[in-house]
Every structure is written in C-alpha cells, then in structure tokens.
Amino acid sequence: MIGLGRMGGNMVKRLEERGHELKTYDPGVESTASSIEELRDQLDPPRAFWLMVPSGEITERTFREVLSVAEAGDVVVDGGNSNFRESQRRNAEAGENGVYFVDCGTSGGIWGLEVGYCLMVGGDDVGVSRVEPVFRDLAPEEGYAHVGGSGAGHFVKMVHNGIEYGLMQAYAEGFEVMRASEFGLDLHEIAGIWRYGSVVRSWLLELLKAAFEQDGSDLEKIRGYVQDSGEGRWTIAEAIAEDVPVPVITAALFARFASRQEESFAAKVNAALRNQFGGHAVQAVQTAQAAMQDPRA
To answer: How far apart are CA 231 and CA 205, in angstroms?
Structure first.
C-alpha cells in the first residue's frame, strides 16, 4: 500500500484484520519501507502495488516511480479518484512493460474501515483476478464489481460522485427551506426520522444527523464554503461529449462555485441594471469605517 492517509491507512487495517500481509510506503508516516524501491524488494513477485494517493500530479509521479521498479507480471492498482482517461493512458504505458494496471473507484470515506468500501474496478481480467481476494475483503458483501475494461472503474466512480453532488445539493436546499420556515423546526430530529421508512432515506442523512449533533442545528462552526475535487466537472464534460443532459449535477456544481464567493459580481450587475431601467433601489456597500462606527455592526 502506497499512501497511508485517512483512506489508505484504514484499508491496511481492514486487510490485516482479514489475514492479509501488507508492506507499506508513505514518506510522511511510519512504514515498512523507506522508498518504493525498498517496498518492491519486500514483496515476492509477482507483486501488487496499490496507490492510494491524491489524484493529479502526485498520482502521476507515484505511478512513474512504481513503473520504473516494477517487473513484468506485477500489478499496479490506482484506488484514488483519477480521471478515467488518465487511467487508460497509464494502462497502455504499464502494458508496454508487461505490467497490469487496474483502476479502482473507491467509495466509503473514513467509515470504510468499519463497514467496508464500495469498489468499482476496471482493467484486464488477468490483472483484476490477481487482486480480487483483496477487493472482496475490502468491500462489504455485494459491494465489489469488476465493471469493465481499462478506465471503467474510474469512469463509474466519476459518475457516482457527480450523482453525489446532486443528492447533497438537494438535501442542502430542502433543509434550508425548512430552516427558513415559520415553524421553528428541529432539523436534527427531522434528519433522524427521515432515515427510517422515508423514500429519501440514505447514508447521507445519517451523516447530516451526526453533523447536527456535532455542530448544532444551525451549523454555527461551519462556513458555507464548498469545494469540489473534480469528478463533478468531469461528469459534466463527458455528458456534454455524449449529448446527455445533466441539469441537476450541473446546477449542483455551480452552487458550489457560488458558495465560494464573498459577494457575487453577477448580483451587483443585476442590481445595477434594475436601478438603471426601473429606478429600483440599490443597497450601498457599507464602508469599513462606517461599519466600525455603527453599533449594530
């Protein structure tokens, strides 16, 4: 296992609990090896290297380093959120060296250690079969599938995360409507009861209930700034390429963009236009000095 962060470290623990022997490498954490080359020497061929590192430059650099020390017959598994096109390229490059490359979409977050990880795997049948005992022990029952050829695992995970954007945004908007209502609703209680029997019940509701317990029903300690890690953008780009409409996922991504703005310039333009054509009042920006003098600030 290369990469012992929140996901990789817990995956090691889950596999060791199920009888697997693992060697590890992470320059920032105590590991069995101090380099990828030493890690290779700790493993009997044919070897299996599992990359559990952030997507992008770090994955590319790590893949190149592993490929430089791997031997024909070895398997390289990328369990991160890489773009499926990049996985297809890496598969081709690994194949030139007689190395199998497997792309494994991994979902489960920090809860995977306890409940298992949903695994969406793409790659050559031979390479996948070599690592399949590991996939089955990492996943809960019925939580693993070899979904297709090279890139298919990361493609399915990409769409999975796009759907996740839409689900999260729908919950967020619904709970804001309830918070703004006249009824003084207990959002923590509602998140709790919706987990049972409701058609909108889900694990996300369980996590939301836990968040309300931790931070209060107004989530006072949390700023409404929502990042994205790329999969939503990739899903939309592929949908455009395939002429498939994905308005919900697109709106959810744009809502994340909006959450990062201190103030929307587009809204300023709207306000200015209403004032120009209709004489509608505009709210002036309060200067910092005026804010300091205003006891209500």
So the answer is: 22
pTM of the entire predicted model: 0.91
Q: Which residues of the chain have pLDDT under 70?
A: 286-297
Residue given tokens 């744009």 in the structure block: 254
Mapping DSSP to helix (H, G, I), strand (E, B) and coil, where does residue 231 land? helix
CB atoms within 10 A of CB 241: 8
Sign of the four-CA dihedral 133, 138, 144, 146:
negative
Question: Residue 172 is inside which H or E element, if any?
Answer: helix 152-179
Cα torsion angle, 232, 233, 234, 239, sign = positive
pLDDT of 280: 82
Single-letter residue type at 267: A
Bridge partners of residue 119, in order along the sequence:
106, 144
The beta-carbon contacts of 86-90 under 8 Å, at least 24 apart in sequence, are 86/59, 86/60, 87/122, 87/150, 87/151, 87/153, 87/154, 88/150, 88/151, 90/63
- Cα–Cα separations (whole angstroms), residue 190 to 142, 209, 223: 30, 9, 22
CB atoms within 10 A of CB 211: 15
Which pLDDT belongs to residue 109? 85
**Closest by CA position to 160, among listed 101, 120, 112, 201:** 120
Give the span between the Cα atoms of 99 and 27, in whole angstroms. 24
Catalogue the active-site residues: 157, 164
Which of 193, 222, 204, 198 shows the shortest CA–CA distance to 164?
Answer: 204
| Cα separation, 57 vs 136, whole angstroms | 29
Q: Give phi and psi for 34, each to the nearest 5.
A: -100, -5
Question: Kind and range of the H or E element at 268?
Answer: helix 265-278
How many angstroms separate the first and last alpha carbons of the chain?
53
Which regions of 114-241 does DSSP assign to beta strands (E)? 118-123, 144-148
